[in-house]
Amino acid sequence: MRISYCLLFSTLVCFVSCQKADPPTNTELISRAWKYASFKATSNGITVDVLQQLTACKKDDLIRFKLDKTLTQEEGLTKCNASDPQVISTGTWSFSVDEKSLNYAGRTATIVELTASSLRLQYQETGSNNALVDLALVPAD
Fold this sequence. Notes:
Layout: H1 2-18, H2 26-30, E1 33-43, E2 46-49, H3 50-53, H4 56-59, E3 62-65, E4 70-74, E5 87-95, E6 101-104, E7 107-115, E8 118-124, E9 132-139
Antiparallel strand pairs: 1-2, 1-3, 1-9, 3-4, 4-5, 5-6, 6-7, 7-8, 8-9
């Protein structure tokens, strides 16, 4: 009888430990610090690599989306001015109802990709150039 309890217990432990965890939600995936991987703008058929035009102290800046739906834009390791505050700006973010768009920093961006290792957004700039912006981010941590 003792052997059957041990066998039953072993089987139960194996079954419980072998169950797969639920995949992370989009909120869990986005809630972290992100850094630039690519930043391009296309207007009138001309694509500009915006990231290459940024100074080194701007290229390493971070965007931190938090679980409480707030966000911060932060200085990276290289500050343009040593006396600049670490947090450049703050705001809020939200998904559209279908979670295919992201509202942040006063704009609505289409989510092209959101995984644990990549966040890619596209949005239309308004103003004189009406550029289509393609922004690719990777985890900073």
